[in-house]
Amino acid sequence: MTGSVVDHSALKVNQAGIILTVLVAFLGSIYSTWFELLVPALAVVMLLGTWRPDLALFKQVYFQFLKPRGIVRPRLLEDSPTPHNFAQGMGGVFVVIASVLLPLVPVLGLALSLLVAVLAFVNLAVGYCVGCQVYFLLARSGVL
Fold it and tell me: Distance between CA 10 and CA 62 in Å, rounded?
């Protein structure tokens, strides 16, 4: 273990933000294609938060609003932030691909963004992080 402490409540709020954004984009796209702009906006949010964790929008909502007001309690665990950051970056890349697909084949773009939301939901609901697993497999194979 790295000796680092990770607030898993911040991770959960981040996952909930990803899920909510994709669902609003998906359901809103039924009424207007303008809602699809949430997908590239989410890609920017995710990649910015990967590059600079202090810019992670949904985590900042947690740290600046939810946690200070006691709405969400911290859940500090000894953990490395690196696999979680890698997972967010990987999800961000998939959302970028979804953003590129949206004007070309909207159904595929929305489906790919829904896949990212489903994987975020799996992590939120049962605590299994597919992106973290990819990180560990790549690290074990020597790629990372």
Answer: 6
Instruction: Identify the band that residue 12 occupies on the pLDDT scale cut at 50, 70 and 90.
Output: very high
Which pairs from 113-119 meet CB under 8 Å and 24+ separation? Answer: 113/22, 113/25, 113/26, 113/39, 113/42, 114/22, 114/26, 116/18, 116/22, 116/91, 117/18, 117/19, 117/22, 117/23, 117/26, 119/91
φ/ψ region of 9 (left if φ > 0, alpha if ψ in -120 to 50, else beta) reads alpha
The predicted model scores a pTM of 0.93
Residues 6+ apart with CB under 8 A from 140: none
